[in-house]
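Minutes, project check-in
Item: structure for the 126-residue chain
Input as provided by the requester:
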Amino acid sequence: MAMQESGEMYLETIYVLSLKPGSVRSVDVAEHLGYSKPSVSRAVGLLKRDGLLVMDEMGYLKLTEAGEEKAKRIYERHTVLSMLLMKLGVDEKTATEDACRIEHYISDRSFEAVKEHMRKYGGQQA
């Protein structure tokens, strides 16, 4: 079943925050995204229900293997698309904002073509 864009945003955010030192809590996600704590709490509940996330007794969030796999795929799309847009001359802020929108809708086939193009011509080591 396809995940909604908002669920993908939460997964990607939790993944990105988990790359930094320290543990990730719902409040960290809320601050990073600029969302309310109740919105994040609801999303965390849905991600837990879907087996993509676990929360320990201290309230720390950790992606499951399936959640991390999905989050890494979303993050890869974001970084590759951002890089492509910047190489085309788009400023970094606009490129990252646009990549954030595109990453949720681009087909696997088109994304693989973008990655291949970047490997051949864009200096991307994807």
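Outcome recorded: The longest strand covers residues 60-63.
No further action items on this chain.
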